[in-house]
Amino acid sequence: MRMTQVPAAPAVDQAPGALVAAASVHRVGEVGLLRRLASRRLSLLSLVGVAFFLLLALIGPFFAPHGLGELGDDALAPPSVDHWMGTDSVGRDVFSRFLYGSRISILVGFVAVLVAMALGTLLGMLAGMRSGKARDSIIMRLMDVILAFPLLVLVPVITGVIGQRDLSLGPIPIGPEALVSAAIGVVLIPVFARIARASVLAEMREDYVLAVRSFGGRGRDVLFRNLLPNIAAPLVVQAAFGLAMAVTVEAAVSFLGLGVQPPGASWGTMLADARQYVTLGAWWLVLFPSVAIALFVLVFNLLGDQLRDELDPRARTAAAGRRRRSRGKASEERSQVEEDDTDEHA
Fold first, then answer.
1. C-beta separation of 151 from 187 below 8 A
2. pLDDT tens digits for 127-144?
3. pTM score over 0.85
4. Which of 108, 194, 220, 333 has a C-alpha 20 to 30 A away from that of 123?
5. Beta bridge partners of residue 161, listed in sequence order
6. Residue 334 neighbours by CB distance under 10 Å
7. Does domain 31-311 have CATH number 3.30.1490.480?
8. What phi and psi values does residue 65 have, to the nearest 5 degrees?
9. Higher-scoring residue by pLDDT: 107, 172
10. pLDDT tens per residue, range 31-55
């Protein structure tokens, strides 16, 4: 049995603490993660973009010059000093609606990813701890069933069916924003569950886990105190990609009329309201929410790539190799230019 491989005598004094500490060096080292990200241009650009969108969601509505549903006399007016992003078909200020809608779209994305990350990680870890057993099979087959349906099909179906009813948690009504967040979160659960299960299966073979279990560590303690901190890196990377996906799906669902309902605003509902006026030359109604969605997806996908390069040793090695090759190529080009200049002077 593998348990007989645990050292006795002096090595026992170090286990499991020393082994756990040795296996957890990488999470202690992540204190400088932001510093390392800020040292590279692409990483710094992604961090600036993330900070911008977070501030936009948190404090943007406080700077709105008009109310969300405030009507004006000047309908379909182009951008001007009074209305920075123009007005819509009923005279509402597009800039104000953009600020309010940014909070809804980003908040829906964050809540959806938090739901998916929490439930998916828990289910994946429970499955990984009992690999090959009935619990593992049941959980993963359920994840396969969810993955069998396209994301942009399953979420509208869930919101379309459940959204027809008046839902509430006791005296608290469940609005369309919460419903969309829950639907997107449920559909994203299998992605995190698979990552968590694969990471747990890899960590279960490590010496520190064997040592903890040989000293009577309970499954719950091993799961949350030892395994969870050491499998967090790929989950954090996936969370960045998941945010970009969640905001895109929210925009699609709201565009179809199954998400945020008027007079509420999100980037998707703004696009839905604008589609019939594009042919009339009201380009500003489509431009600003479209650019916001595109930039949000770009920023968080870029952040995910940079986090993966930092937290995944294999990706970090590959990225370092690419940077070395890029520097080498640039050096060769400079040398060639210098040689050409020398030949011309000669």
1. yes
2. 988 887 899 999 999 999
3. no
4. 108
5. none
6. 10
7. no
8. -75, -15
9. 107
10. 477 777 777 888 889 999 999 999 9
**Cβ-contact 81, 112 below 8 angstroms:** no
Q: How far is residue 283's CA from residue 281's CA, in Å, rounded to a whole number?
A: 5
> How many helices, marked H, and strands, marked E, lie in the chain?
16, 2
Residue carrying the six token digits 């395994």: 227
SS (HEC) of 35-53: HHHHCCHHHHHHHHHHHHH
Q: Residue 261 has which token pair?
A: 């309902």
Q: How far is CA 173 from the centre of its chain?
A: 27
**Amino acid identity, residue 281?**
G
Locate the domains of the chain by residue range.
31-311
Torsion of CA 255, 259, 260, 261, to 10 degrees: 80
DSSP 104-167: HHHHHHHHHHHHHHHHHHHHHHHHHHTTTSHHHHHHHHHHHHHHTS-HHHHHHHHHHHHTTS--
Question: Residue 299, Cβ neighbours under 10 Å: how many?
Answer: 22
The size of the chain, in residues, is 346
Place of tokens 């369309």: 176
